[in-house]
Amino acid sequence: MVGGRAAGIHRERTMMAPDNSRRNYAVLAVSIAVAAVFIYAGIDKIRDPLQFADSTAAFAILPAVFINLLALGLPPFEIACGVLLLGPRTRRVGALAVAGISVLFFTALASALLRGLTLDCGCFGVGAPSRPRMWLELALDAALFSGALFIYLRSITRLPARAP
Amino acid sequence: MTSTVSIVTPDSARLPQARGLGSQILRDLGGLVLLAIASLAAGLVMNRFSLSPLPIVYQAPEQRFDAELTTLVAAAPFKIAPAATVGLEEFRSAAGSKSALILDARPSVFFEQGHVPGALNLARDDFAHDYRDLAGVLQAAHDKPIIVYCSGGECHDSRLVANALLSLGFGNVSVFTGGWDAWSAGGLPASTGNGR
Hints:
- The structure holds 2 protein chains of 2 kinds.
- Chain A is built from 5 helices and no strands.
- By secondary structure, chain A is mainly α.
- Chain B has a 5-stranded parallel β-sheet with strand order 1-5-4-2-3.
- Chains A and B meet through helix 1, helix 2, helix 3 and helix 4 of A and helix 1 and helix 2 of B.
């Protein structure tokens, strides 16, 4: 049994090595893609916080006292998320932040669509209010959440086994 | 190396692993909270040194517009009857014959992408600046009909600008409610650029 298990471990190691390498490349590729989206979105919002505040107010979710705080705090947060995703040691926190913020964006957009609102979400620069664009941005939020979850789950360190 | 060994770990070793995983997730959540606080602090500092800082409490476009209008007129704005409205045919005829001054109340970025030929940009979001720029044209057209439009549908910019002009003493101001959406949906001609 012991010999059989050891042999099994050996086979597993031999077979897993190239697979793990592929997965690491996949995590890196998804991290770069998600980071690029967040850094772009953050820079775009930081240039015109008033426009983003107006877009946020159009959702009619937050009270006035929180709207400008969100408009000022979210752009640096998005840029920081993108930068954190690019570092191997900081990737997990970046991925968790992207997953969390994507859920918030998704919920806000879905709520606006369900309430029949037509608005410009301000997610990626200024644009004319449009429901098809809102649906597109909802799908993008779902994709960003999936990407962030993939990065986070693949980046969680597995602890070494202890001898019984 | 160690990652594959963990797959065949006996059940007795899984509890410490789960605890380790839990503490990792807690550490990550702590990092997330710190990131949020640092981002808000960075945003507030940048706003402090910005050329046009935002107030801490949000003001709706109507409130900002009201405040901006007081820089142009001493009287309290919007204490007047709302502007009349015109339909597409009447607007098209006025624009074609140049019998009325056509004003586009949308932000300049949209105006430059496409507007009614002959229209001038008196943007709601930069009203005081645009009004001063167009002061000569507006005074020359003081007794002429003025028609204001914005995007159409649910946009309020045209009504705000029309009522501001009525407050400023212009007597014949109306709103084309169909706006740019109705004009472009009708396949009517369009101009681009800043129109000056």
